[in-house]
Amino acid sequence: MQGNNQTKRTRFTGMQLTRAADYAVRVMIHLAAVAPGTRASRGDLAGAVDCPEQFLSKVLQSLTRAGLVTSHRGNTGGFELPAARRHASILEIVEAVEGPIHLNMCLGEEAECGHRNGCPAYPVWDEAQKAMTSVLRCARIDELARQASPWTPRPAEAPDRTEVEKEPQWN
Fold this sequence. Notes:
Order of helices and strands: HHHHEEHHHH
CATH superfamily of the domain at 17-99 and 140-166: Winged helix-like DNA-binding domain superfamily/Winged helix DNA-binding domain
Strand content: under 5%
CATH topology of the domain at 17-99 and 140-166: Arc Repressor Mutant, subunit A
Helix content: 40-55%
Structural class: mainly alpha
Radius of gyration: 19 Å
Mean pLDDT: 81
CATH class of the domain at 17-99 and 140-166: Mainly Alpha
Number of strands: 2
């Protein structure tokens, strides 16, 4: 019985992106899927990516500070994806929210491991880091938005076909 509890407790721990990074990627893909120049309110984005609105505020702040999203105030305000950022990579988005990705502490600019030079595992960590960041750098939100269309509506909403194409929803 003890083993089962341990398995359940650690099942989703370990190396994984935070919810903030996941929501940031979802928001960016959502904005890339709508017509250029379209502004979406925080509430609309929260609904589209199934994220609590207050939590999404922090994610949107990070994306705005990084220049990935533009924020507009007022009655016609909202968030929009600048044309130049429609090709942003998943790596750019994740790092805007999380900071630089480091698979292990020895891989950062300020390497904290004193064993780095003589460590037989270092080349493995370094190669894995390069492979992971390469994949994330090559994944572009405009391409992902095209692959995700047409979007599947949520069962409770069931809009007609034209609304599905206009308002992408995450399941």
